[in-house]
Write the structure tokens for this entry.
Amino acid sequence: PGPMLPPGLTTPLVATTTTGSGATLDSVPTDFQPGAYADLQAPLPATTTTVSVSPTSATFGSSVTYKATVTSTGGTPTGGSVTFTTGGATLCTATLSSSGTASCTATTAPVGTDTVTGTYSGDADFHGSLGTATVTVAGLATTTTVSTTPTSATVGTSVTYSATVMGSGGGTPTGTVTFTTGGTTLCTATLTSSGTGSCTVSNAPVGTDTVTGTYSGDADFAASSGTATLTVSQASTTTSTSGGAVVFAYLVVAVAELVYFGLLDGGPRGQTIGKRLLGIATRDAHTGGQVGFGRALLRRFVFYALFWLFFIPGVVNVLSPLWDRRRQAWHDKLVATEVIRVR
């Protein structure tokens, strides 16, 4: 004959005994005898736990109610408790009511999209089970105020960027503030215990820069940003005037020399200091008289021009009296003058 089963059972059951050995049976053995397993028990009914949250979106620190409904085909579970957790942290625990529901309210849900797990413990009559729901928790609102010191700078000079982050609902925000302009990061500052942060760099671009300070947010506070304006100008350039000064000085000397020769060569004696020492004088080539200031000045100007503009003709001009019949240089011929010996 087949194995003997407890009264009312027609097929073997998977069960756990509570007899002396406390052994767990995977199946009823084929040689089952009622006397040997008198306290063999039927398995507990399975349960289903449905979890909900209210509201489904909240701000950090505000109240959220977590509710679980436990059902079973074997009846309504009324014992045990449901523990609500997220990310390994316990939010709250509630005892199952006579209607198979449990709820509790807590304010500790962390910022982010939280998966809330409700775990039913089970009782003497029903197996445990669990269910999940989602709650979105936003950080507390913050306000970020940004400033720059100085507000106007020259490219390449140091600028200090500062931010003050204020949080709503009390408490002090932590984290970092990143300062950017035109998509370029300037620097990043860590907030102090007073909610302020600053950093100093010299990389701001030329122009009117809109500096944005972006607060990163933390476990309790939401991100935010603020702006300030910084004007960065090109560095002033210093133009060297040494070259211009030399040219100016040279022109002054040249003009003074022209006037000198104009006055003395064109004067009544027609002699500069050098000509007087040599016993020669400048005279009109036709009359032998006084040359005058204008022609004497022009004579010297042509002399210099031949050297300044045409060096080789200038040299030939100086040497030309050696072969000229009247011993005239080219500049003498141009203004009709000649140099004669007066002693």
